[in-house]
Amino acid sequence: MNIPLLESDARHTSLPLVARRPSQLVGSTPVLWIDEPFAAPGRGFYAKLEGANPGGIKDRPGLHMIREARRRGDLEPGTPIVESSSGTLGLGLALAGLTFGHPVTVVTDPGMEPSMIRLLTTLGAHVDQVAAPHADGGWQQARRERVAELLARTPGAYCTDQYTNPDNVTAYRPLATELIAQLGSVDVLVASVGTGGHSAGTASVLREACPGLTLIGVDSVGSTIFGQPAGPRLMRGLGSSIYPSNVDYAAFAEVHWVAPAEAVWACRQLARRHHASGGWSVGAVALVAGWAARTYPSGTRIAAVFPDGPHRYLETVYNDAWCLEHQLLGQEQPSEPDEIAEPFECVVTGWTRCGKVRDPLGRTPAQRTEAVVR
User: DSSP for 318-356?
Assistant: First the structure.
């Protein structure tokens, strides 16, 4: 039986350290054992609660990318930072701006929740919102083009470019080392995929200690990352309408696409049964990690990364009126994913699994690295 390692009767003999700067609160996030209703008792998974960071998982790359840019001399003291974000990286960059003394502009789109806009503004960031999606690349490409405009008119301004920046990958080394310290070993890692940073960075370091690691990617329906056609995406924080160079396709054993209603169900079950939940990525990851816990042999140690907490989603995922408006409640939820043999076999509209993962642009790892360098 896979017995949870972190129990409530653990004895702590010292008081926690006192942080003197908010950046010192990032990292050392807890792990929570999750079983029912996703899996039978003893057959669950370990959830890494990145929502325990001040702003969520992207506090890690927000701080790391800015620290490294300053170290290399790419970012001069006091100069502006401009980046595209659907929300969580914006929080990380706001923290980095406060920590290192840089003004921050977050370029987003109308899908960002009003509460997130208010929070970013309160934290000192300027929010710039694009008005229309790009004809081919959707909102993400429209935001990236707006970033380019702002950089051109602001001498010395710096963009972290989270989609291609290798620092967005190496930022997650501490997350992996924390998991090893907390769990001893990891057999299966379940991670959502957006920019590709935390799946690539966490898995590569885990494999140094756990060579047989299996990486399961979790994407959104309507996302192009793993070869599906671009479509409307209600879920934010995972998925993409562009092809991020940081996605390490060769590292994945399989990919699952999850639909909004399925993620909402999982989020609400987490909240009700485990008093720990989050947004779209958290729900989608929990659904897939629960499947892995039911499917893999007993004793398999499964870790799942929960990127954020529930607070920014109180008016969406946890709002009955909003969910009913978008037809996300009252649906019978599947216990197993549909299966397709090839990522492009058909357009998926609900939870679907594919055991073949390849770069949809046909790029080799070297070519993706070359794209990053350019």
Answer: T-HHHHHHTT-SSPPPPSS-EEESSTTSS---S-EEES-
Q: Give me the mean pLDDT over the 59-80 stretch.
A: 97
Alpha helix (H) residue ranges in the chain: 59-72, 88-100, 114-122, 138-153, 167-170, 173-183, 197-209, 260-274, 280-295, 320-325, 365-373
- Ordered DSSP codes for 63-125: HHHHHHHHHHTSS-TT--EEEE-SSHHHHHHHHHHHHHT--EEEEE-TTS-HHHHHHHHHTT-
Structure tokens at 150: 């702002």
- Cα→Cα distances 210→203, 206, 327, Å: 9, 6, 42
Tokens representing 76 are: 């001069």
SS3 224: coil
Tell me which DSSP letter residue 361 carries: T
Task: Give the pLDDT score at 329.
Answer: 96
pLDDT digits (tens, 9 = 90+) for 134-165: 888 888 889 999 999 999 999 899 999 999 99
Greatest Cα pair distance in the chain: 60
From residue 367, alpha-carbon distances to 180, 202, 245, 361 in Å are: 31, 22, 9, 10
Residues 82 and 107: beta-carbon distance below 8 Å: yes
Residue 134, phi then psi, degrees to nearest 5 = -70, 145
Q: What angle in degrees, to the nearest 10, is found between the helix axes of 280-295 and 260-274?
A: 80
The span from the first CA to the last CA of the chain, in angstroms, equals: 49
Q: Is the pLDDT of residue 176 over 90?
A: yes
